[in-house]
Design a protein that fits this description.
31 helices; 7-stranded antiparallel sheet; alpha+beta; globular; 35% helix; 951 residues
Length: 951
C-alpha cells in the first residue's frame, strides 16, 4: 500500500477539449495516472469534458464526470463524493492547474477538506508568475535573460526602450505560448504588447531580451518525497531559441551538448525543482545555451506538472513518467517502485538510450486561410510524430515519412523547392516545411555556413543533412541493376525509403524492394528497453532498423532481430498517425478499443503507430507495439515478419484507410469491410449507382477533372454548388461557390494543390437540415443504428464543426424512418462489416444522402459515452467474425440529450477568417448533457444557427 495511508479517494482533473497547445498527451498521461492509482486500490473520480478520449471511458475511473471544467462542476462532484481525500491536478495540463488554483482561491478545497497532491499551489504560482520566478532564480543563482514584468502598456514601452530590440513578449498564465511573440520594431511592439496584456488572465506580460540563435534544451525530472531526483530524458531542440518547443523539431538524447555543460544543466535543473516547492511528482525544465565555446546556460522556465514533453520523453525512453508521478504523489519513493520495463530493477534509475528519437510537429495551416505561417514563440502545431532510429539520420527520415504530407522523406521525391529566393525565405522565416527546405538548400548548392548563418541550427545537424545529400548524389550514378549491396544497405540504414531510392535509380519502388530482398537487406526489430540492454526488458515495444550482417563464432552469418514471432493467431491494428484537424484523438480511442476487443477474442494484438501523444502507443496496451511510421513500406515489412490473420483498417481514420488498396493488392486480408466496399463508398459515381438502384435520393452531382468540365457541369446543376476533391479528410478543399468565376478559381486552385484528383460537384441544398447516423453491420446484413444525431447548424457547415444533438430533436417520424431505412439499405448494399457513418441533408421532408463512410467516425466515441455502451468493442468483434450484431444486448442509457460541441483554436491565428463552412476547422470537442430542449445552453446555440445561413 502507499505510504500515505489516509488517501483512499482521489479526484483527477482532466484537460478538456483538444486545443492547439494542449492535445492528447494529457489523455495519455491522465489515463496512465488513473490506471496507476487504481492499481493501489485508490477510488478514482475523474472530471473531464472531452468525449473523444480513452481517459473518459467508463472503465478508466470508478466515477467519470463528463462535465464542464469549472468550479461549479467541482463543487457538484465534491458534494456527491464528500469522502474525496485529495485532488491530483498535474495530469491535465494548464487547464487542470488553472482550475485547481481557482478552486483554491475560492476556498473550495479547504471547505471540503481536500488535499492537493503531486504539486503545491505555491510551486504553480511561482512558475507561472514570471516576476516571482525571476526573483527566485536570482536568489538561487540561476542565470536568466534580462527581463522585466509589465502590467500596463506604458510600462511595457519603457522596458522596450531600456532593453532595445529584438524582444520576447510572453503573457503570464497562458497555454502553448498564447500571446507570446518576438518583436523587432516599435510597430510590432505596440501590437504584441496590447495582445499579451489582453490574453493574460492577470493582464501581465514578461518582456525578455531575445536570445535569438541560442540553443534550446528540455529536461524531464521526477522527484519523490525523500528528495530523490532522477532525470528521465534530455531533449535538444534542433531549432534554436525563438520557436516554441511544441513547434520545434526535437531530438533525444541531446546531440551537441558537451558533457561538462550537461552535468551543469542537470545540477541547475535539480536545484530549480527543489527550490520551487516541496512536492513529489514530475517536472519539465527548459534552458537556453549560448552557441559558443562558453556554453553559458540560461533558465527559460519550469513546469511542475507532466507536459507535452513528458509524453514524448515517456515514449522516447520507455519510462512511464505519468504512471510513476501518480505513485509518487501517493507517497511512494522511487526506490520502492519497480522499473516498468525490466520489472526486475527499481524506478530509481536514469534511462540510457542506444537509439535516437526525432519528433517533428504536424501543422494544419491549410485550414486557416490567411494565417501567419511563420513559426515563433506561440505554438501553432496541431499534433506531432516521433520516430526511433539507430542514428539521427534514420530517425529524421522516419519522422518525415510519418507526417502524412505526401512526402517520402527528405529529398529524392521530386517535390523539393528549386527556387533560390523561395528556399532562402523558408530558411529565414522558419516555416512548417523548413525541415525539407534545408535539404533543398544543400541540393541547390547553398553552403552550410550560409544555412547556419540564417537558421542558427547547429552545424552538427547541418552536416548530417549534407551527408544524406552526398549519399543521394552517389546512388544517383547507379541503376537498380548496378547498385551494390553495401551502398543500398547504407541508404536503408540512413532511413531512405524504397520509394526515394527508386527515384534516385529511376526505377519502380517494387524493383528496389525486390532487389534488397534478393540481397538479404531486411528490416530487423529492436526493443525499446530504457537501459541500453544492460538489463533484460519485459515490454514488447519495438522499432525497426537495418543491420550489417555479423559472423558468430560458430560461422553463422546473421543479423539480430529482437522481435520474436509467436505461433498465436494475430491481428494488426493500424493507428491514425499524427493528430490533425479532421482526424484527431477519437480515432486513437477507436484503435485502443479495437486492440482490447481483439485480445478478448483470443488474438495476439499488434499496434502500429507513430504518435507519441496517444494511449495507443503506450507500451502495455497491445501485446506488441511497433513504433513505426504508418507508411506502406514499414507496414508491409511488419506484416511479412508477423504474418497476422489480418489487418484492421477501419479504426485509424483516413490514414489507415488509405493503405487498404495496397493491402488488397499484396494479398493481405482486411478484417471487416473489404477494400472493394471501402472504395465503392469513396467513388462517387459507383456510390450514386447504388443509391439510384435502391431509390435513395441524393443531391444532383457530377465529376470533373478540369476547369472546363466543371464549368459545363455548372450549367446543368445550377448554383450554389459544393465543390470537393475525392479521397480527402476533414472536408479538405471543400467550398460552396455561387457563380462561375468562383467555381473556376476554386477548381484551378484545387487541381494545383491536389493534381490528378477527381473533383465532385454537388448541387448544394440551401437551408437543409443536416443529420448523421452511425451503425454496426455484420456479414449477414444485420444492422444496428447506434445513434442518429441532428446538427444545429444548417447543411454546409462541416459535421466536425457543427453542434450535434443526440438523439435528433427536430425530425418528424417520417424523416426518422427514412434515415433508418436508408442506413439499413446502404450498410447492406456496401457489404459493411463493422462500422459505418452516413450523413444526410433533409429538405422538404425528403432525406438526401450526402456521403457514407464505412469506417469508424469522429462521432462514435461521443455516442458511446452518451449512451454508455462500448460500441467499438462490439464493432471489432463483428469485424473479426467472432460475433453477429444480433449477439449483443444493446441497452443505451441517456436521459435528455447529449450535445457534441466543437472547440476551435482561432486565438492562435488572430488574422484568420473565422467563418465556418464545408472545410473543418475545429481542433477538438466537448460533450454537454442537457435535461430538455428548454435548457438555456441549447436555446442559445439554436438561436445562433441562423447566422450561418446568410449568403
Amino acid at each position: 500500500m502507499p505510504k500515505d495511508k489516509h488517501i483512499k479517494s482521489i479526484l483527477l482533473i482532466g484537460s478538456g477539449p483538444i486545443v492547439i497547445g494542449q492535445a492528447c498527451e494529457f489523455d495519455y498521461s491522465g489515463s496512465q495516472a488513473l490506471r496507476s492509482l487504481r492499481e493501489d486500490g485508490i477510488e478514482t473520480i475523474l472530471i473531464n469534458s472531452n468525449p473523444a478520449t480513452i481517459m473518459t471511458d467508463p472503465t478508466m475511473a470508478d466515477h467519470v464526470y463528463l462535465l464542464p471544467l469549472n468550479t461549479k462542476s467541482i463543487i457538484k462532484i465534491l458534494k456527491e463524493h464528500p469522502h474525496i481525500d485529495a485532488v491530483l491536478p498535474t495530469m491535465g495540463g494548464q487547464t487542470a492547474l488553472n482550475l485547481c488554483i481557482e478552486a483554491d482561491e475560492k476556498g473550495i478545497w479547504k471547505d471540503f477538506d481536500v488535499e492537493i497532491i503531486g504539486v503545491d499551489i505555491d510551486a504553480i504560482n511561482i512558475t507561472e508568475d514570471r516576476e516571482k520566478f525571476r526573483d527566485l532564480m536570482t536568489k538561487i543563482g540561476v542565470g536568466m535573460a534580462p527581463q522585466e514584468t509589465a502590467t500596463s502598456f506604458l510600462k511595457g514601452k519603457e522596458i522596450a526602450q531600456e532593453f532595445g530590440f529584438p524582444l520576447c513578449i510572453r503573457a503570464s498564465f497562458t497555454l502553448g505560448g498564447a500571446g507570446a511573440s518576438i518583436v523587432y520594431d516599435e510597430k510590432e511592439l505596440d501590437e504584441s504588447l496590447t495582445r499579451g496584456l489582453e490574453i493574460s488572465p492577470i493582464h501581465e506580460v514578461m518582456i525578455d531580451k531575445a536570445l535569438l540563435g541560442w540553443k534550446e534544451y528540455e529536461l524531464e525530472l521526477l522527484r519523490d518525497k525523500n528528495d530523490n531526483v532522477v532525470i528521465i530524458c534530455t531533449i535538444e531542440n534542433m531549432d534554436p531559441m525563438g520557436i516554441h518547443t511544441g513547434d520545434s523539431i526535437t531530438v533525444a538524447p541531446a546531440m551537441t551538448l558537451s558533457d561538462k555543460t550537461f552535468q551543469k544543466m542537470r545540477d541547475m535543473a535539480i536545484h530549480m525543482m527543489r527550490s520551487i516547492g516541496d512536492f513529489a511528482g514530475g517536472c519539465n525544465v527548459q534552458f537556453a545555451v549560448s552557441p559558443d565555446q562558453e556554453e553559458e546556460i540560461i533558465a527559460i522556465e519550469i513546469n511542475p506538472r507532466v507536459s507535452r514533453s513528458s509524453a514524448l520523453a515517456s515514449k522516447a525512453t520507455g519510462y512511464p513518467i505519468a504512471k510513476i508521478a501518480a505513485k509518487l504523489a501517493l507517497g511512494y519513493t522511487l526506490d520502492e517502485l519497480s522499473n516498468q520495463i525490466t520489472k526486475s530493477t527499481s524506478a530509481l534509475f536514469e534511462p540510457t538510450l542506444d537509439y535516437v528519437i526525432v519528433k517533428i510537429p504536424r501543422w494544419n495551416f491549410d485550414k486557416f486561410e490567411g494565417s501567419d505561417r511563420t513559426l515563433g514563440l506561440q505554438m501553432k502545431a496541431v499534433g506531432e510524430v516521433m520516430a526511433i532510429g539507430r542514428s539521427f539520420q534514420e530517425a529524421l527520415h522516419k519522422a518525415t515519412q510519418s507526417l502524412e504530407i505526401k512526402r517520402n522523406g527528405l529529398g529524392a521525391d521530386g517535390k523539393g523547392y528549386k527556387d533560390y529566393d523561395t528556399i532562402i525565405s523558408k530558411l529565414k522565416y522558419a516555416s512548417w516545411d523548413r525541415v525539407f527546405a534545408i535539404y533543398d538548400a544543400i541540393e541547390i548548392g547553398i553552403p552550410l555556413s550560409r544555412i547556419f548563418e540564417i537558421t542558427k541550427i547547429d552545424m552538427w545537424f547541418l552536416k548530417q543533412y549534407e551527408e544524406l545529400f552526398q549519399l543521394q548524389k552517389e546512388i544517383s550514378t547507379y541503376t537498380v541493376d548496378t547498385i551494390d549491396r553495401e551502398l543500398l544497405l547504407e541508404a536503408k540504414q540512413k532511413g531512405y525509403g524504397d520509394r526515394q531510392i527508386a527515384h534516385m535509380l529511376k526505377c519502380l519502388e517494387s524493383e528496389v524492394y525486390n532487389k534488397r530482398r534478393a540481397l538479404n537487406i531486411n528490416r530487423v526489430y529492436k526493443l525499446v528497453d530504457t537501459c541500453a540492454a544492460e538489463f533484460k526488458a519485459q515490454t514488447p515495444y519495438y522499432y525497426s532498423t537495418f543491420e550489417s550482417e555479423v559472423e558468430t563464432p560458430d560461422g553463422q552469418i546473421s543479423v539480430h532481430n529482437e522481435s520474436v514471432v509467436t505461433d498465436k493467431k494475430k491481428i494488426i491494428v493500424l493507428g491514425s498517425g499524427p493528430n490533425r484537424i479532421g482526424q484527431g484523438i477519437e480515432f486513437d480511442y477507436c484503435c485502443v478499443h479495437g486492440v482490447l476487443a481483439a485480445a478478448e477474442c483470443g488474438y495476439e494484438t499488434i499496434m502500429i503507430n507513430c504518435n507519441p501523444e496517444t494511449v495507443s502507443t503506450d507500451f502495455d496496451i497491445a501485446d506488441k507495439l511497433y513504433f513505426e511510421p504508418v507508411f506502406w513500406e514499414h507496414i508491409y515489412d511488419i506484416i511479412q515478419h508477423e504474418k497476422p490473420e489480418g489487418v484492421i483498417v477501419q479504426l485509424g481514420g483516413q490514414t489507415a484507410l488509405k493503405l487498404a488498396e495496397k493491402l488488397e493488392k499484396w494479398g493481405v486480408k482486411i478484417m471487416g469491410t473489404s477494400f472493394k466496399s471501402l472504395d465503392l463508398a469513396e467513388d462517387r459515381g459507383s456510390f450514386s449507382n447504388i443509391l439510384k438502384a435502391n431509390n435513395i435520393p441524393y443531391p444532383e452531382f457530377d465529376v470533373a477533372e478540369t476547369a472546363d468540365e466543371a464549368l459545363a457541369i455548372a450549367d446543368i446543376l445550377n448554383f450554389p454548388i459544393l465543390v470537393r476533391p475525392s479521397y480527402v479528410l476533414g472536408g479538405q478543399g471543400m467550398k460552396i461557390v455561387i457563380n462561375k468565376d468562383e467555381l473556376e478559381a476554386h477548381v484551378i486552385d484545387l487541381l494545383k494543390s491536389i493534381p490528378g484528383n477527381k473533383l465532385l460537384l454537388d448541387h448544394y441544398l440551401d437551408g437543409a437540415i443536416e443529420a448523421e447516423a452511425d451503425a454496426i453491420c455484420d456479414a449477414d446484413g444485420n444492422v444496428y443504428i447506434i445513434g442518429i444525431m441532428e446538427h444545429i447548424e444548417p447543411c454546409g457547415i462541416h459535421s466536425g464543426d457543427s453542434n450535434a444533438l443526440l438523439p435528433a430533436f427536430n425530425l418528424g417520424d417520417l424523416v426518422k424512418q427514412q434515415i433508418i431505412d436508408h442506413t439499413h439499405t446502404i450498410a447492406r448494399a456496401l457489404n459493411t462489416v463493422g462500422l459505418i457513418n452516413i450523413q444526410f441533408a433533409i429538405k422538404d421532408d425528403i432525406v438526401y444522402i450526402i456521403e457514407a463512410n464505412p469506417r469508424a467516425s469522429r462521432t462514435v466515441p461521443f455516442i458511446a459515452k452518451a449512451y454508455k455502451e462500448p460500441y467499438v468493442n462490439y464493432a471489432t468483434k463483428v469485424m473479426l467474425g467472432e460475433k453477429k450484431v444480433t449477439d449483443f444486448d444493446f441497452k443505451p442509457k441517456l436521459d435528455g440529450y447529449a450535445i457534441k460541441q466543437p472547440v476551435f483554436s482561432f486565438n492562435k491565428f488572430p488574422n484568420v477568417n473565422k467563418k465556418l463552412g464545408p472545410e473543418m476547422k475545429s481542433t477538438g470537442e466537448s460533450i454537454l448533457f442537457i435535461d430538455s430542449l428548454k435548457d438555456d445552453e441549447f436555446y442559445d446555440l439554436y438561436s445562433r444557427r441562423k447566422m450561418y445561413l446568410s449568403k
